Amino acid sequence: MAMTARPNVLVIGGSDSSGGAGIARDIATLSHFGARASLAVTAVTVQTHAEVIAVEPMPASFVAAQMLAALSADPMRPSRSECWRRRKRCRQSPM
Questions:
Q1: What are the helix (H) ranges across 1-95?
Q2: Could you tell me how far CA 12 lies from the centroid of its own chain?
Q3: In this structure, are residues 78 and 7 in contact, taking their beta carbons and an 8 Å threshold?
Q4: Distance CA 71, CA 64 (A)
Q5: For residue 7, what pLDDT is reported?
Q6: Distance from C-alpha of 69 to C-alpha of 74, rounded to nearest angstrom
Q7: Measured between alpha carbons, how far is 37 from 27 in angstroms, rounded to an integer?
Q8: Is 33 within 8 Å of 24 (Cβ atoms)?
Q9: Are 90 and 82 within 8 A, CB to CB?
Q10: Which residues pair with 12 in a beta bridge?
């Protein structure tokens, strides 16, 4: 019996040092549903479950390079994006 390949999702987002959100939570959620995650990290954060203390954004060229590397390594269809910009949160729904 042939095994079905696990879907691969490109997750574009920031870290969460508390593990309650960001790419850490996305990886856990995707794993729960049997998918694997490829990553492009947009920012590294210092945060708790209650507050964001600091955000260190990655340069856009570095995020783009991560995305290109992930896309060239494995085929994927869906994507999940979350970023921080000027203290406003922005999201992109799965494609």
A1: 22-32, 60-73
A2: 4
A3: yes
A4: 10
A5: 83
A6: 9
A7: 6
A8: no
A9: yes
A10: 40, 81
Q: What is the pLDDT of residues 6-36, one digit of tens each?
A: 888 899 999 988 888 889 999 999 899 888 8
Tell me the residue length of the chain: 95
What are the percentages of helix, strand and coil residues in the chain, rounded to 5?
25, 35, 35
φ/ψ of 38, rounded to 5, equals -110, 150
What does the DSSP 8-state code read for residue 91? E
12-42 as b/e: b if 16+ CB within 10 A: bbbbbebeebbbbbbbeebeeeebebbbbbb
84, pLDDT greater than 50: no
Q: Provide the CA 80 distance to its chain's centre, in angstroms.
A: 6
